[in-house]
Design a protein that fits this description.
mainly alpha, single chain, about 190 residues, 7 helices, de novo design (two linked rop proteins), about 0% strand
Length: about 190
């Protein structure tokens, strides 16, 4: 009888440890997916921000009297480059995207600029990067949501509490990104 009790206790301990390890590994995998998703966004943001000076150089000659718009794009780009963390970068990205939408809308007034192949290529490149960034943001938010649900649900919340895992913040759209671009024709 004593041997059976020891076997049962041993079995319960082994199963408990295996269960704990499984939960631990799952939480770590979800946590690392968030970091990977953010790194993917960061790579695309860097690529986009590397393209912006080229786009502005192309536009400068055509849009000399639209200097305010070009300067707004440059300042917004610098704001994003200086921002730290998802919340600050999200807010800075909102201002940057608003300035880019305004730049592309103003370009409509310059048929020669719009027809120039280098401008078209840069605009297509930036637009493609915007699309990829949107996809990566969606994946990031999905990863954060999965992580937050897991660390708040039983039994994962017990293991998450032991590991001091805290909820992560989703990448949110700034109010400026929701507004229409206002163009003033002179």
């Amino acid at each position: 009888m004593g041997l059976v009790v020891l076997i049962v206790i041993g079995f319960v301990i082994v199963v408990s440890i295996a269960y704990f390890v499984t939960i631990y590994n799952g939480l770590i995998a979800v946590k690392n997916n968030i970091d990977k998703a953010w790194a993917n966004i960061d790579v695309l943001l860097k690529q986009r921000h590397d393209e912006i000076p080229k786009l502005i150089d192309i536009c400068k000659g055509y849009m000399e009297h639209e200097r305010g718009t070009l300067e707004a794009v440059i300042q917004a780009r610098q704001g994003v480059m200086a921002a730290q963390g998802p919340a600050a970068i999200g807010q800075a990205e909102g201002a940057f995207q608003a300035s880019m939408r305004q730049l592309f809308a103003l370009a409509e007034n310059y048929p020669n600029l719009k027809a120039q192949s280098s401008f078209q290529q840069m605009q297509e490149r930036v637009s493609a990067l915007e699309s990829q960034i949107a996809d990566r943001r969606e994946f990031y938010n999905d990863s954060v949501n999965t992580y937050n649900i897991r660390i708040e649900s039983l039994p994962d919340s017990v293991v998450a509490g032991m590991l001091n895992l805290a909820p992560r913040e989703m990448y949110k759209v700034d109010a400026a990104e929701r507004e229409d671009v206002k163009i003033a024709f002179k």
